[in-house]
Design goal:
single chain; five-stranded antiparallel beta sheet
């Protein structure tokens, strides 16, 4: 008769090999006392692994020289324009662009289309801002009424489809700013969101997005509420932990609650460790004993950047193209964003060996 009593974290697994005789060469797993707990309250110094981003996904539009139509989400603009011009809507049954290009004659423009994307500026620092968009060659662009050359593409961002174009500070101004696009619209022109990249924070008030200063430090809690609502890259927090084990044998960093793809713990003298599954812990004994600083890299997802950003409710059983163009009670004009980052205080657990 053999009883094995074990604890399993969610999605955890263990492998046991049962033999008639005990293998004396195997090390005995150490048992520890109940840990001494220290909360890491923050706020924390930090670095961003990518420029911050402001999503411009709402636009006014007009066809030819008609009246400007009220601002709405850009995919809804695309559908409204196609309906007004008697064109098929974009969807899964459309002829794929590569096939049309190869086997169909070039399409003739249906109408001249204008778009206006508005945002507010309260703060700008440096001169390394960029406008990111798809197929810039199909549009004529002005920023605050000044011509903007889309030919100076400086590479791509996240995906080769997103073209980075330097945006000089002298084109921007305090208060309201307007990026205006104009094109000869036809079925090959797909209307998509624009993105601003740079060394700024983003404050959201309803549907209004304002460029503000980045936070000086990062506090425990969602990055959405700390001027990083759309940020989706890695962010490294500088953790201040005890300098020494205080007579203990083991130090463990524990993250009770976070919202990210995974975490990476880095410290001098130790290999980096990935935290992705419960119990969300990493052994940092060597770093604490040596008094070395701990870096916690929070690797976010792209969900708050590429959406769906207006799907209601926030959580649904599944996601597909229709979630980006939902209607009625399943649509929110305001942004629907997931809490992101470190949502509860990290914990430092100091343990002693039993016996």
């Amino acid at each position: 008769h053999l009883d094995i009593v074990v604890d399993f974290p969610p999605v955890g697994e263990k492998l046991y090999v049962i033999t008639p005789e005990a293998d004396s060469s195997l090390p005995v797993r150490p048992a520890h006392t109940t840990p001494t707990l220290h909360h890491l309250d923050g706020p924390f110094d930090y670095t961003l692994g990518e420029p911050n981003v402001c999503v411009l996904d709402r636009a006014e539009y007009r066809i030819e020289d008609g009246d400007w139509q009220p601002e709405r989400e850009i995919l809804k603009v695309d559908r409204a324009v196609r309906n007004e011009l008697g064109m098929d809507l974009r969807g899964g049954e459309m002829v794929q662009p590569w096939y049309r290009k190869k086997f169909h004659p070039p399409l003739q423009p249906k109408a001249k289309l204008g778009l206006r994307f508005r945002f507010q500026v309260k703060y700008l620092e440096g001169n390394n801002h960029e406008l990111v968009m798809e197929t810039p060659e199909k549009f004529r662009i002005t920023v605050n009424g000044k011509p903007f050359s889309q030919e100076n593409v400086a590479g791509w961002w996240i995906d080769v489809a997103f073209k980075r174009i330097p945006l000089p500070n002298d084109l921007l101004q305090g208060g309201e700013n307007v990026v205006e696009l104009e094109c000869d619209f036809h079925e090959h022109v797909d209307l998509e969101a624009l993105y601003l990249l740079g060394n700024f924070g983003v404050a959201i008030d309803g549907t209004t997005r304002t460029l503000v200063s980045l936070p000086e430090h990062i506090a425990v809690g969602s990055l959405v509420d700390q001027h990083l609502p759309f940020y989706s890259g890695p962010i490294t927090l500088k953790l201040s932990v005890l300098q020494g084990l205080e007579g203990h044998d083991q130090a463990v960093l524990s993250l009770p609650k976070y919202q990210a793809a995974c975490l990476k713990v880095k410290a001098e003298g130790q290999e980096s460790q990935i935290i992705a599954w419960q119990p969300y812990e990493a052994d940092i004994t060597q770093a604490v004993a040596a008094g070395n600083p701990i870096d916690l890299e929070v690797i976010l997802t792209r969900r708050n950047l590429f959406g769906p950003l207006h799907q209601a409710p926030l959580d649904t059983p599944g996601y597909g193209p229709n979630n980006f163009i939902s209607k009625g009670d399943n649509w929110s004009e305001d942004y629907m964003l997931y809490p992101s980052g470190i949502l509860e205080r990290p914990e430092l657990k100091l343990r002693k060996l039993e016996g």
